[in-house]
Amino acid sequence: MLAPEQIKVKLKEAALGLGFADMRVCPAADFSEAEADRLRAWLGAGMFDKMEYLRRGAAAKISPQKFLEGAKSAVCVCASFWRESPERRVALYAQSRDYHEVIKPKLAVLAKILEADGFRARSSVDSSPLWEKPLAARAGLGWIGKNTLLTRAENGAWNFLGVVLTDAELPPDSPIANRCGSCMECVKACPTGAISPRGIDARRCVSNLTIERRGDLTEEEKRLAAGKIFGCDECLRACPFGKNVKIPPMPEFSGFVSLPQTPSQEEILSAAKGTPMERKFKKKSE
Questions:
Q1: Beta carbons of 31 and 131 less than 8 angstroms apart
Q2: What crossing angle do the helices spanning 278-285 and 265-272 adopt, rounded to 10°?
Q3: Rounded to an integer, what distance in angstroms lies between the CA atom of residue 67 and that of residue 165?
Q4: Domain range for 211
C-alpha cells in the first residue's frame, strides 16, 4: 500500500496527464455553520427561483458526508475552457462538448487509483448536491469571487470543476487569499443587477432564465435575457483575472459555435448537438 503522500503525487500526475489545469486536496469535513446559514438565507429569500432541486439538496450541500459516508478527503480538479469565440449569445462553456461527459470518465480514472489502494471513492461533476465550488476553494484551487464563481489568478472563472471524495486521508493543501479586494467589475458588468453581497439572484440571472427555466418567459424576463440564447458570460468576461488567459483549454473544450443573426430552431438544435445545450433544445423540438 502506498503512503498518503505517494497516492497524492500519483493522483496529481494522473490529473495533469488527463488535461486538468490543477489538482488539490482538502478535508471532506462538513461546512461551517456560518457557511450553512448563508446558504439557508439565500434559499429563504427565494433567490433560487424555480430550481427546487437546490432547496431539496441543501442538507447534502452542507455535509459532504452525505455524498460519501466516512469521507476524509476531497480531491478537487479544475479544467480551463477559455478560448476565443465569435458567438456571444451562447455561454462559452456550452459551445463545445458537454463537460459532464468529458470530465466524469477522467474523474473515474482518479477514483480507480484510490480504489486500487483499497480506498472508497465517489466522484461528482456538477451532477449532485455536493458543494463543489466551496470545496475547490477550501483546497486552494482559487477563491470564491463576488459572482459566486471559483476564481483563479491564472484564468479567472473560466474553469470546470470536478471532485472525488474518498475515505483516504490525503495531505491537504491550503486555501489561498481572496484577491477580489474592492474590485466590482463583475457586479457592474451584470446586465440585470443579479449580483449582490447576498449572492446571485437567479430570478434576474440571464443564465438561469435561458438555461434552467422551462416554458415561456414573461415579457419582462425576455427583456432581461436581451437576446441571449443560452447562458451569459458578462461577469466572467469583466473579471480582470479572466482576461489575457494563457492557460490553454482542455482539448475537448476547444470548439465553438457560430449562429446566424436570427437563427431558426433547426439551426440552434444543429449547433447544440453534443454540447450542454442539446438537452434543452432537443426537448423544445420534440
A1: yes
A2: 140
A3: 8
A4: 4-279
Mean pLDDT by 10 residues, the chain (286 residues): 95 98 98 96 97 95 96 98 96 97 98 98 96 98 98 98 98 98 98 97 97 91 95 98 94 94 93 93 68
E strand or H helix at 122, and its extent? strand 121-124
With respect to residue 285, please indicate whether it lies within any of the assigned structural domains: no
Q: DSSP letter for 152, please.
A: B
Say how many Å lie between the first and final Cα of the chain, rounded. Answer: 53
d(CA 176, CA 140): 5
Is 284 part of a structural domain of the chain?
no
Q: Which of 126, 167, 173, 216 is catalytic?
A: 126
Number of structural domains in the chain: 1
The pair phi, psi for residue 243, each rounded to 5°, is -100, 150
CA dist., res. 93 & res. 85, Å (int): 11
| Residue 110 within a domain | yes
Q: Catalytic: 173?
A: no
For residue 57, being part of any structural domain is answered with yes
This prediction has a pTM of 0.95
Q: Identify how many contiguous H helices and E strands the chain contains and give both numbers.
A: 12, 8
Asked if residues 72 and 210 have their Cβ atoms less than 8 Å apart, the reply is no
